[in-house]
Structures are given as C-alpha cells and as structure tokens.
C-alpha cells in the first residue's frame, strides 16, 4: 500500500504538470470510487476548473482548484494510481475517472482492488462530515513534536506498531516504514509503548522523518503495484532493512529476521537488535 513517501512522490510528479491546466471534460467509469459527491455533481464541479496546486496530507493527495475551496482529494488505497498521461494512451484496466486537460494530457485514476477513495469538497468540511478522518501530526512538518510524541507513547498500553500505524497520531506511516523505523530504532514492534525508555522513544522519533526522507529520495517503494504520477517504479525496495526480509540475515548482526503478526499486520524484526 502506498505510504507517505510514495504519495509524496506522486504529488511531486503531479505538481510538475497539473497547475495551470484546465479540465475540459470528466469521464467516470462504471465502478466509480468517488465517495463524495456522487455522479454528475462530481464531474460538474470539476469541469471547466483550473488546477492551482497539489499537496499531501498523510496518505491523501490534495489537488486544489482556482477560485473555489473545493479540492480533489485522492487516497490511493491498496492498488490505486493517479497518473498523468497522453490523452491518446490506452486507459489502464479499472480506470475510474479520466479528466481531459487542455494541452493534450489526461489525469486518470485506476484502482484494481477499489480500496481507493476520491472526494471533492473543502478539506475541513469533509472532516467535519466524517467523510475524511481527522489526521495527526505530519512527520515531516514543523508540528512533529518530540514532547507530544513522548507523552502519547508513555501513556498507551498498545504496542509500538499499533501506535505508529494510527493515522490520528502520526499521519502517513504504514506497514513498510513502521517496520523500518522500529528496526533502525532498535525497538521490537510488539513492545508495549508505555514500557519504552526515553532513549528508545527518542530513537523512534528521530528515525521516523529520516526513514521517510530517504524513501522520498528513492522515489518510494515498489513491491508490486505502486507507480508514481508518471507510471514509474520507485527504488527504495532495494534499501529496505526489515520489511519483507523475514528469515533473511539481519544486515547489522546476521541473526535471522523474524516474521510475526503485530497489530494485525505482517511484521519483520531482528530478535537480537530490537528490544
Ligand atoms: Zn540484528
């Protein structure tokens, strides 16, 4: 599933093409993943609008339009792709919308498994209507706060993996990068958060943005489905230290990495390096 670095890479790609382009027409597929508003209202509100910017919040892509508080909000789910392509290119299977842009390109969203979400509206209003979740701290933003991070971990009985996956606490982390952060911080993902030492909490806090920034530099992790806005794969999968390495030797100590299920998710850690 695309996490913060993959979504950020898509956003940076879209930012190079979308701003200034006007939507000439919108075509919706038969199995739309548009959650709000339904049908013609969605297409009607976008047709004729000009894109003014593209941003990211957590794992959500926010495409802003000139002259309105409405924005196009896309969550890629498990297998979604938001891509810009030549209008003449054959659409991918499971294409849920096509937006014809001036200049001969199209913005398209395809999603085979349909766990993706597409909404249109002002961000805050959609959160208030419970159509979008209230998200926690941006780990690459100024609001990523060490004291808040310590306080939250100290007072919860949940395990570290569950806490870091919680989008209402830190927005944008998922299975891959939580395993990487825990490995680099030397913390067992199943460890009860309230039992961590201050040093361990600091290590988790410090490695979170570092792991994400490295993955962004590598244009994201492509395990199977992820592609950026230009339909290109990332390269961070070659750099993973924990995720997907169950049974393989730890790159620090040589001990076999252990695969288990933590917080309902497949999880890999080194039983020697991670306490
Ligand atoms: Zn190890």
Explain how this protein is built.
The two termini are 27 Å apart. Strand 7 (95-101) and strand 8 (105-111) form a beta hairpin. This protein has 275 residues and is of the alpha+beta class. It contains 7 helices and 11 strands. The protein has helices spanning 4-15, 40-46, 123-128, 146-154, 160-165, 175-185, 198-217, and strands spanning 23-28, 34-36, 51-57, 60-65, 71-75, 80-86, 95-101, 105-111, 117-121, 258-262, 265-269. Residues 250, 252-253, 255, 270, 272-273 line the site of zinc ion. Zinc ion (ZN) is lined by residues 250, 252-253, 255, 270, 272-273.
Topology at a glance:
Layout: H1 4-15, E1 23-28, E2 34-36, H2 40-46, E3 51-57, E4 60-65, E5 71-75, E6 80-86, E7 95-101, E8 105-111, E9 117-121, H3 123-128, H4 146-154, H5 160-165, H6 175-185, H7 198-217, E10 258-262, E11 265-269
Parallel strand pairs: 2-9
Antiparallel strand pairs: 1-7, 3-4, 4-5, 5-9, 6-8, 7-8, 10-11
The structure holds zinc ion (ZN).
Zinc ion is lined by residues 250, 252-253, 255, 270, 272-273.
């Amino acid at each position: 599933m695309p996490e913060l670095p993959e979504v950020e890479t898509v956003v940076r790609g879209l930012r190079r093409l979308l701003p200034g382009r006007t939507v000439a027409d919108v075509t919706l597929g038969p199995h739309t993943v548009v959650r709000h508003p339904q049908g013609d209202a969605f297409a009607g509100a976008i047709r004729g609008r000009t894109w003014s910017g593209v941003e990211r919040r957590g794992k959500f892509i926010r495409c802003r339009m000139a002259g309105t508080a409405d924005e196009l909000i896309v969550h890629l789910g498990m297998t979604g792709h938001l891509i810009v392509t030549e209008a003449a290119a054959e659409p991918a299977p499971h294409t849920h919308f096509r937006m014809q842009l001036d200049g001969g390109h199209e913005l398209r969203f395809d999603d085979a498994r349909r766990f993706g979400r597409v909404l249109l509206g002002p961000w805050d209003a959609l959160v208030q209507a419970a159509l979008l979740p209230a998200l926690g701290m941006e780990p690459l933003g100024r609001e990523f706060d060490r004291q808040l991070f310590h306080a939250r971990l100290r007072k919860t009985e949940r395990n570290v993996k569950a806490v870091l996956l919680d989008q209402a606490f830190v927005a944008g982390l998922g299975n891959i990068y939580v395993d990487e952060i825990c490995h680099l911080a030397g913390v067992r993902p199943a460890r009860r958060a309230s039992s961590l030492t201050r040093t361990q909490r600091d290590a988790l806090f410090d490695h979170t943005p570092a792991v994400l920034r490295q993955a962004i530099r590598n244009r994201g992790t492509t395990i199977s489905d992820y592609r950026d806005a230009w339909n290109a794969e990332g390269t961070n999968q070659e750099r993973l230290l924990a995720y997907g390495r169950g049974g393989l030797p730890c790159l620090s100590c040589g001990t076999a990495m252990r695969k288990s299920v933590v917080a309902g998710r497949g999880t890999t850690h080194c039983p020697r390096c991670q306490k």
